[in-house]
């Protein structure tokens, strides 16, 4: 019940600050761009668009979200509330993943992508990874400029290998790299068991660290460990 309320509060927060309106506009622009491309380019273009925006929105927007919560003293209230860091992290991941999946589904359908279920699952796991990265960085920053600087290395190790892999520029063994597994699935291709295990391990590690850093952020604002 508490997790459900956290999820709905996050959705309300995102609607209030224009996240949904922004993605309606971006989705229209992306669809127009896809329709303007030659037919044989659409599949890869859709995969790049999905992976680099709706799937990774948690990495780009989490800094603004957490800074807004700090400015409104929401984090102070959470620090002394019964809410657990686990619930906070899951609510953030779930609410942003919901937007990602809707936008990804529309773009995939516009591009006539094959294996829509694989595309959406790939979008979901990508969104989880990027949102957890975003939470980890957001708990450690004091300004939006700091957040942007801290996310640059993450973008480098996530987007560059994935795009190179998508165009088959990297060796075959790079297909086991977690973000490469994600973009394969966003492209509609199934993953190997070993590759998916790597993704699962990455998500678990990032979840543990994000939960820890959220708890530390709350404690630094007056929360105490009971």
TrEMBL record:
Membrane-spanning intervals of the chain: 20-38, 44-68, 89-110, 116-138, 147-167, 193-214
Keywords from the named record: Membrane, Transmembrane, Transmembrane helix
Domain of life: Bacteria
Keyword Ribonucleoprotein found: no
UniProt-listed InterPro entries: FLQE3_permease
Protein name from the UniProt record: ABC transporter permease
Organism: Parablautia intestinalis
């Amino acid at each position: 019940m508490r997790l459900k309320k956290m999820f709905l509060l996050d959705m309300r927060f995102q609607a209030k600050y224009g996240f949904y309106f922004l993605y309606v506009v971006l989705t229209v622009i992306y669809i127009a761009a896809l329709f303007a491309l030659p037919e044989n380019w659409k599949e890869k273009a859709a995969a790049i668009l999905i992976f680099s925006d709706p799937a990774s929105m948690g990495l780009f927007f989490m800094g603004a979200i957490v800074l807004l919560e700090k400015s409104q003293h929401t984090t102070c209230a959470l620090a002394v509330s019964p809410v657990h860091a686990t619930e906070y992290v899951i609510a953030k991941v779930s609410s942003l993943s919901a937007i990602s999946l809707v936008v990804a589904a529309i773009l995939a359908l516009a591009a006539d992508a094959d294996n829509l279920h694989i595309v959406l699952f790939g979008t979901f796991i990508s969104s989880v990874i990027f949102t957890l990265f975003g939470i980890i960085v957001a708990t450690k920053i004091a300004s939006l400029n700091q957040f942007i600087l801290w996310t640059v290395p993450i973008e480098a190790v996530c987007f560059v290998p994935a795009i190179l892999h998508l165009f088959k520029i990297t060796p075959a063994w790079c297909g086991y790299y977690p973000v490469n597994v994600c973009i394969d699935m966003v492209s509609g291709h199934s993953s190997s068991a070993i590759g998916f295990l790597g993704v699962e391990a990455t998500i678990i590690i990032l979840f543990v660290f994000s939960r820890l850093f959220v708890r530390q952020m709350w404690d630094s604002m007056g929360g105490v460990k009971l």
